[in-house]
Every structure is written in structure tokens, then in C-alpha cells.
Automatic annotation (TrEMBL):
Statement: the UniProt record of this protein carries the keyword Transferase: yes
Source organism of this protein record: Oceanobacillus luteolus
UniProt keywords, alphabetically: Transferase
Top-rank taxon: Bacteria
UniProt cross-references to Pfam families, sorted A to Z: CoA_transf_3
A molecular-function term among this protein's GO annotations: transferase activity
SUPFAM superfamilies for this protein: CoA-transferase family III (CaiB/BaiF)
Name of the molecule in the record: CaiB/BaiF CoA transferase family protein
């Protein structure tokens, strides 16, 4: 049986909703033992978000696979003691409380470092642990607004638009993953544990490299431009007879092939408005109008086949359901099926990285609330009777394999 890259890594996950859980999900996909500690007694806020399958949130299940779950009351001394026991031999600790909250709870980095000096502690918050906004609550949409992303997204003549996905949450998750793994490699080389401060705003802003180049290099402020690229053309969506397609002829060779063989407009190669990539980008509105006069005469399929024939990058604009059923996506195993103890046969997204030797694996579904209370605590040395007493005393909640078959 193939090993996984992160087998042997223990992660204690106190995060909820998206950025933190997505980070720890990926660590679990790669073989880490992720123990999700949910707040008492309601669990992760995502559990209250539909759609539901037999009262289990599909949203929750999407980003909490490959984890074991406990529901622990950290306001009780016994609950805090259990968390400290979990941390003693942990490699990684992830949380996304508002800055200052972990100090009040007694689970801040300075406290846990005393228990485990080798701990890699990662905090994910809206604005980071420092700065004038640090104490503010911040969700993805606020981060998109502060980073300039909403202002630069949408049609030229339209309103500012939020990016279609929670892009700052995912950017923060990806930044946390690479940071945790960097810190883990450092520790494996004989280094120490450390604290990592991740901000949703910083993580998303770091992805705006083209926009920063335009601003720092020429003072240009990126504006809404629909699907068009800021410095390359044609590189956008175009209207056809029956829909829209994407064309990316972003260098001179591709542009000339497009003019000669696809659009049959050789005169555009010498047209002063379209001579070079940068000039075409400056005149993108005229270019779009000229191209659509030709493209609207035939169907999307007609143009996509012709573009493929001449090796010009192009593609359809799919709805999300079309994307999930697309042959390319299906062939890459990006849709997986698994059995959930309540929901039955479920579908989830696959692993985007394809490893030859240490592939990601779907080893367990997202936990029911408190499903692994008994399993995790007995591993820490607690007696079954003590775990049962914790349930009665309000220290643990949910399925601890001592309550009932459904975990409620």
C-alpha cells in the first residue's frame, strides 16, 4: 500500500467555516491525523448551512473529510485539560478565532508553547494579528473589498462585483498550507516550532501580481474590464452566434494565425490599431467589436473546432453543472464518491495534485458532531467511564460512541 506524504503528522484543528477547515482538509488528504475540535455544543458554524442530507450539512461535509471530530467545552476546566493533552504531542495547531480570543480561552501560542515547544501554531484571521483592523471581524467579502478585488471585477460599465468564489478564504487556506509545510520542514531539519500569522486580506492581495506590476511600474489603477486581460489581447470572452467562447491569442504568432486562418482577416495584422500585443490591449474595445462582427456569424462549436485545428488556445464558458460533468474534469478524477454513515453515497471534489508516489486519499468522511470523542480521549489515556462522565458534566457533546447510533 502506498504511503502518504504526511503520515505521522498530528494536527489539532480549532478552525471553522472555510479557510481553516480547507487547510486542514488538505493536510488530512495527504495523510495527516487531523483532530477537529468543535465548539460546544453546536459545532462548526457550517453545520447550520444547507443543503442538508438527513440533517447533516453538505457544506460541512465538503471541507471536513479525512478528519476525526470531538466536541469540547473549552470553558470548562476539564475541557481545557483535554485540549492541552491533545497538544502535548501535536505537530500543528490551527485556529481562526478573532485576535485576542485565544488568550481569553487560555489556548494562545504562548500558553501552548509551554506545553509543546515544537508546536507549529497557525492563526488565520480576517486582517491578521497586528494593524489597526486586527480586532475587527472579517469575512471573505470584506477582504475582497479591502484588497481592491471587488473594485476591479465586473463589466466595464457595470457595478463592482464579488469574485464568484470565496477567493480570499481559499487564498488564506493555501497560504496556511504552504506556510505550515515550510515550518514543518524547518522543524524536521532540527529547527524549532513557531507561530504563523495568516490574514485573509494579505493572502488574497499577494495574488494580485499583474495588477501590482501595473500600479508600481506605471501608476495604473486596475479597473473593471469584464473578461478582458489588462495587458494582453485578444485574451477574453467573445460573443458568437449562439453563446460565448474564450480566445487567448496572447502573443504575436497566435494573433497572426488567428487573423489568417480562423477569422480570415489578414489585413488586421498590419492594422495600426492591432500591431502589437500592448497596442491591441490599449484598443481592446475596438478589437472586441471587430472580432465579434465575424464571430457572431457562426456557432460556438464551429469556432472552437477551428481554433483547436490551428492550435489557438480557446474554450467554452461552462455553467458549474456543465463543468462538473465535463469529460476533461471527469477524466482527472475530480469528482469522487464515498459512503457517509448518515448521508449514504455522497459526492465530493477530488484531489487537484496528482502524486506518483504519495497520492491524496479519501480515507474517512467528515465526522458527525463529536463522533470520535471516545476514540480520541481513550487514546489520550482517559478511561471510558471518565469520558461518559464528561458527557454528563457538559464537557463533551455529540456522538462519543456512548450516546446513540446517530450522534444526536
Amino acid at each position: 500500500m502506498m504511503k502518504q506524504a504526511l503520515e505521522g503528522m498530528k494536527v489539532v484543528d480549532l478552525s471553522q467555516v472555510l479557510a481553516g477547515p480547507y487547510c486542514t482538509m488538505v493536510l488530512g488528504d495527504m495523510g495527516a491525523d487531523v483532530i477537529k475540535v468543535e465548539k460546544y455544543p453546536i459545532g462548526d458554524d457550517t453545520r447550520s448551512m444547507g443543503p442538508y442530507i438527513d440533517e447533516e450539512s453538505y457544506m460541512y461535509m465538503m471541507v471536513n473529510r479525512n478528519k476525526r471530530g470531538v466536541c469540547l467545552n473549552l470553558k470548562e476546566e476539564a475541557g481545557l485539560r483535554v485540549l492541552y493533552d491533545l497538544v502535548k504531542d501535536a505537530d500543528v495547531f490551527v485556529e481562526n478565532y478573532r485576535p485576542g480570543t485565544t488568550k481569553k480561552l487560555g489556548i494562545d501560542y504562548d500558553t501552548l508553547k509551554e506545553i509543546n515547544p515544537n508546536l507549529i501554531y497557525c492563526s488565520i484571521s480576517g486582517y491578521g494579528q497586528t494593524g489597526p483592523y486586527s480586532k475587527k471581524g472579517g469575512f471573505d467579502i470584506m477582504a475582497q473589498g479591502l484588497s481592491g478585488m471587488i473594485d476591479m471585477t465586473g463589466d466595464k460599465e457595470g457595478k463592482p462585483a464579488k469574485v464568484g468564489i470565496a477567493i480570499h478564504d481559499i487564498a488564506a487556506a493555501q497560504t496556511a498550507i504552504q506556510s505550515i509545510l515550510s515550518a514543518y520542514i524547518h522543524r524536521l531539519k532540527g529547527g524549532e516550532g513557531q507561530y504563523i500569522d495568516i490574514s485573509l486580506v494579505d493572502a488574497g492581495l499577494a495574488w494580485t501580481v499583474w495588477e501590482a506590476a501595473a500600479y508600481f511600474g506605471k501608476g495604473e489603477v486596475p479597473k473593471r474590464n469584464g473578461t478582458a486581460h489588462r495587458v494582453s489581447a485578444p485574451y477574453q470572452g467573445f460573443k458568437t452566434k449562439d453563446g460565448f467562447i474564450l480566445i487567448g491569442a496572447g502573443n504575436q504568432k497566435l494573433w497572426e494565425k488567428l487573423c489568417l486562418y480562423v477569422l480570415k482577416k489578414p489585413e488586421w495584422i498590419k492594422d495600426q490599431r492591432f500591431l502589437t500585443n500592448s497596442i491591441r490591449a490599449e484598443n481592446v474595445a475596438e478589437l472586441e467589436a471587430e472580432m465579434e462582427q465575424v464571430l457572431t456569424k457562426e456557432s460556438s462549436d464551429y469556432w472552437l473546432q477551428l481554433l483547436d485545428q490551428y492550435g489557438i488556445p480557446s474554450g467554452p464558458i461552462l455553467s458549474y453543472d456543465e463543468a462538473l460533468n465535463n469529460e476533461q474534469i471527469q477524466s482527472r478524477d475530480m469528482i469522487l464518491e464515498y459512503e457517509h454513515p448518515v448521508g449514504g453515497l455522497m459526492k465530493t471534489l477530488g484531489f487537484p495534485a496528482k502524486f506518483s508516489e504519495t497520492p491524496g486519499k479519501l480515507t474517512k468522511p467528515a465526522p458527525l458532531l463529536g463522533q470520535h470523542n471516545k476514540e480520541v480521549l481513550t487514546e489520550l489515556g482517559y478511561a471510558v467511564e471518565e469520558v461518559e462522565r464528561f458527557v454528563d458534566e457538559g464537557v463533551l457533546h455529540g456522538r462519543n460512541d456512548l450516546v446513540d447510533a446517530t450522534g444526536r
